[in-house]
Amino acid sequence: MPSLGADMEDGTFTEWHAEPGQQVARGQVICVVETQKGAIDVEIWQAGTLAKLIASPGQKIPVGQVMALVATEGEDWKAIAATAAEAPPRGAARSERPMPASAPGPVPAAVAPGEMPVTVPATPGRAKISPAARRRAEELGIDLTAVKPSGTHAVISIADVELAARAAKPPDRQAAMRDAIAAAMSRSKREIPHYYLATGINAERAISWLEKRNEAVPIGERALFAALELKAVALALRETPELNGFYDAGGFRPGAGMHLGVAISLRGGGLVAPALHDVDRLSLADLMARLKELLRRARSGQLRSSEMSDPTITVTNLGDLGVETVFGVIYPPQVALVGLGRLQMKPWVTEGTIAPARVLQATLSADHRVSDGMRGSRFLAELDRLLQQPEILA
Amino acid sequence: MSMNRDEVRKALIDCILAVAPEANFSEVRPDRPVRDQLDIDSFDFLTILQHLHEKIGVDVPESDYGKMITLDGSVDYLMRRVAKR
């Protein structure tokens, strides 16, 4: 079970999109897991052949626990599946590699392959159960391995099954998301010594350039100013890599790329910040296409595990509905958050002349354990410089 | 194909509902900015315009975004564009 967010402790398994004997490629979606942030498509990060599927629908699985066994090149998946079925699970874990379902780098709860304990029983249903309770469990679709007998005879009763069914009911999505945000933000404010910087950036040149570009392309290829801003943020981070990465027990760990977590508010409440990968290396057209796709999937509840675990920094953009300035709260274990406010028409002085200009208030919230205000200022200055040369953001 | 005002209005509302399915148009003030009332951000707005383009063949350029502020104003503007198609 991959960690799909700073404070995720477990996930509820929903369904497999693969079967034993199937070859899988790194990055392929193999199953779906329900989390506090909605249903997530889980990608496998290791190529091989699926040998045995351990997780079953409805099962609540702690982060780090094995969900499936995968045979790597040269291994016989049938032998692995057979060994896993016969031997106690702990023995099985030694004979082949358990499958970490998420990239190891930025995931705080990732466990090194081989050290991962297998605690899902391979032979379920050992507890005693009354026939009536078994029938009721089948009706309700309850996994009997998850039901604990409450009576004195250690026999699972109908009441136990019904209790388990109520507990397994999907929780209120909005309340769960509020809890997830509360947990992550409380941890952030408890642990991260934030410092905050803000600057006004004249956005006239960048907007005019974008308007000209958009006039020349069909409506489906129009780019939003938000996409141009993301590109500028990613390129500016090259100057100040200490804002892009993670802080954990080992101190600061730089991000492996400019994976920008894009804060997206969901209709009906809640917030997710999935990653757009390698934004500094995307053309504006590609970036816009990926942003559209990400927004569409975020709003329809189809995000992928790598998008949940990979962001190296978060960008919150109030676009044209919000206020002028936003000071964000860092999403742990990240070390910085960039806030982009609503464009405001303001008087701007250039070479002694006052002229109206659309001004962007850009802010930085950063972790003082990793960087200082001087470096943070350097980032905002670089962001300004890039937005004055929009051609290089194309 | 000509369209009357009601048809244009319905086409616009259908396009808005495609991105904001919870929108209740009996509560939307037609003379106030519609995006603020329905939390339509710039991305949603662009999506609505793409739907409109597919549906009624009107391509709204960015320079005309200022004419698409209220529901009534948007319908006025789209009527003029539909007539010129």
Q: How would you describe the overall organization of this protein?
A:
The complex is a heterodimer of chains A (394) and B (85). By secondary structure, chain A is α+β, with helices and mostly antiparallel strands. Chain A folds into 3 domains: 1-123, OB fold (Dihydrolipoamide Acetyltransferase, E2P) (Beta Barrel); 128-168, Irregular (Dihydrolipoamide Transferase), CATH 4.10.320; 186-393, Chloramphenicol acetyltransferase-like domain (Chloramphenicol Acetyltransferase), CATH 3.30.559. Chain A contains 10 helices and 21 strands. In chain A, helix 1 packs antiparallel against helix 2 and helix 7 (225-237) packs across helix 10. The radius of gyration of chain A is 25 Å and the shape is elongated. Mean pLDDT of chain A is 85; it is low at 88-125. Chain B is mostly helical and 85 residues long. Chain B has one domain: ACP-like (Non-ribosomal Peptide Synthetase Peptidyl Carrier Protein, Chain A). Helices cover 56% and strands 0% of the residues of chain B. Chain B contains 4 helices and no strands. In chain B, helix 1 (5-19) packs across helix 3 and helix 1 packs across helix 4. The longest helix of chain B has 15 residues, at 5-19. Chain B is globular, with a radius of gyration of 12 Å. Chains A and B meet through helix 6 and helix 8 of A and helix 3 of B.
